[in-house]
Write a structure and sequence with these properties.
two-stranded antiparallel sheet; 14 strands; 11 helices; eight-stranded parallel β-barrel; alpha/beta; 366 residues; 32% helix
Amino acid sequence: MNTDSLFRPFSLKTLNIKNRIVMAPMTRSFSPGGVPTPEVATYYAKRAAGEVGLILSEGTVINRPSSSADPNIPHFYGTEALAGWQQVINEVHQAGGQMGPQIWHQGIMENHASGWLPDAPFEGPSGFNKPGFENGVPMTDAAIADTIAAFGQAAADAKNLGFDTVEIHGAHQYLIDQFFWDATNNRTDIYGGKTLAERTRFAVEVIKEVRKRVGEDFALIIRLSQFKPAAYDFKLAKNEQEMEEWLTPLAEAGIDIFHCSQRRFWEPEFEGSDLNFAGWAKKVTGKATISVGSVGLDGDFFGAFAGQSSQPSSLDELVRRMDRGDFDLVAVGRPLLADPNWVEKIKHNRLDELKGFSKEALMQLV
């Protein structure tokens, strides 16, 4: 495989990365009490040493009483947790990498399998995680305002700790995505609405607050998805026009890069074109995009949780799309989770050393 395109440098505001490869955010649940451990720092530093261009952290929750549904995912607030993240970014920088935290509010969630629950009820636009499943409370105006402020504070803390960018988690049926989706947002105030464009308001206000706190020169990313984990074939934006009406307000509010989550990067978003989600996002906004979805493997991420293994696959189609200008960066998940040296092996064509992926890799920090 000729992968030279993946190894061109990329610069945008505070990002100056050595290649086009991004470590995708992947929840690991190895931060007891929300505090990243030294082992978490080592885990990320190994990927930086292995020549990953940009590392995006696992989702790390903002300072709201019920932002987390898991006692072992990291916080991005509080003295201990921020000290843990300081160690992470210090070690990543020492290893020659760049990194941003993915800041997160999970919204309405199912109760954790262990029985652990946050100190307050889950909160979301309307109390629903999906149609027919209500497990929390609708957010008041005050709760919305406090949440927007908490996103801003997390971003400001990230910049102060020395991170190179911040990614806002707006995908996968979590809080911001619950505002986008009419099935989980039945509000009749300014944060609701019949159209997707109207339901962008909460995300827009989060982005504006984050932008205000970090300044104009700090690179800002948002992760979005069309699909839902409960409905892989679902599309928030049904066509190009709806996608433009969805993404344009987010770009105007201050987003620099759209991280476009797909299960399989090669699947077209709309009929009549082979452009994927990242390709359409770049076309309608003119902003840089990150493509993601089963890069380098023959199975998808969600299948891994069902016990499905995956084997290495060709990157030729990915390179073809990148060379065509469809997207600017490529996020890689499971191959990097299983092997911190995946990028080096691709760069030097050591393809016989590539590893497959099995669910056992989810159970440990390698």
